[in-house]
Amino acid sequence: MTSLRGRRILLGVTGGIAAYKSCLLVRRLREAGATVEVVLTEGGARFVGAVTFEALSGHPVRTALWRAGAALDHVRLAREADLVLVAPATAHLIARAALGLADDLLSALLLAREGPVLLAPAMNDRMYAAPPTRQHLASLVERGWYVVGPATGCLAEGESDAPGRMSEPETILRHVERVLTPAGPLTGRHVLVTAGPSREPIDPVRLLTNRSSGKMGYRLAEAAWRRGAQVTLVSGPSAEPPPAGIELLRFETTAELHEAVAQRLPAADVLIMAAAPADFRPAAPHAAKRPRNEGTLRLDLEPTEDILSATRALRRSGAVVVGFALETGDPLEKGRAKLERKALDLIVINDALERGAGFEVDTNKVTILSRRGRTQAVPLASKRVVADAILDAVENELSGRPATVSQPPT
Prior knowledge:
Elements: E1 8-13, H1 19-31, E2 35-40, H2 42-45, H3 50-57, H4 73-80, E3 83-89, H5 91-99, H6 105-112, E4 117-121, H7 125-129, H8 131-142, E5 146-147, E6 151-155, E7 158-165, H9 169-180, E8 190-195, E9 200-201, E10 207-208, H10 215-226, E11 230-235, E12 247-250, H11 254-264, E13 270-273, E14 280-282, E15 301-303, H12 307-310, E16 320-327, H13 331-341, E17 346-351, E18 363-370, E19 375-382, H14 383-398
Parallel strand pairs: 1-2, 1-3, 3-4, 4-5, 8-11, 8-13, 11-12, 13-16, 16-17
Antiparallel strand pairs: 6-7, 9-10, 14-15, 17-18, 18-19
Helix pairs in contact: 1-3, 1-9, 4-6, 5-8, 10-14
């Protein structure tokens, strides 16, 4: 993963128990291709020593404002970094930054900083809920700074269901990517993505479903959010973790998916139908579990809703609609027919028999067809790479189209 290749990130580590997570965060940032330098406050050094961050980052760790030969380090560091990231950001650091205090290296460079700053607050839940903390954070957000978290969960003093816990390194990494991704055609747009399988009940215990894992849809939602979009992900049953920053809605049946899409489609600039809803469902599900000893079970199946066709009238003018076609036997020809039949802008086609592509794997191999006649073959790659290729095609379609004015329903 090299999404941050060539980027320079200055990580400020302050005095909170969550400083141990910052060690893993340095590793994750470097794995993504970033150059990481660490500024460690006096409080932060009480939890994790400078030698640890030096070994993980590969750079000397800076700890002091008053150091011979480095009188202007705070100005230089503030200017040279692509992003200043503070994780953990304690209540004390947040207050000092909001008030413009500059009595150590980190607070001084934050005051001199003109580029993006991302804070990952970490503190006791009551400290986070306290009015001064909320007011200080609000003033920094108004200044243009970014905030990730805090999350709920286990704190040093025990479990809590209120925010205070620092976000996990992987979540912070996703936010770093979003902040550092240049603005493009998806920035500020509303993107609606569907993912995963449907489940059609046979009785209260048994159901009809398919092998979709939701991985492709989740990678698409994450990539769209990383590019600055406002993303709603409508997901069937999936083991994928909820993506950071994204509105997540759940469905079980194709009818529930249809309802969710119909509700949010009028406000969407982009619809990406990566879900795998069932084509058929039991016409008359049993109200009680049918015992095996009753003999052969025969099911009468009826067609489910054709969501792409049924919601055509709800698409806003200028919206880009992307369908998927997992086919066998001349998938390109079948995909072209579906592109026209359902009035799509793009269709993503893959062969269900292709090794390493399709359901339940982390890779995919697709062909992207455009209504305007463009054909792009994407060779076997991770679904993250394939998602970016699909969104490149979406952005090409979006060029020149107006953005949504209304907000999606909450």
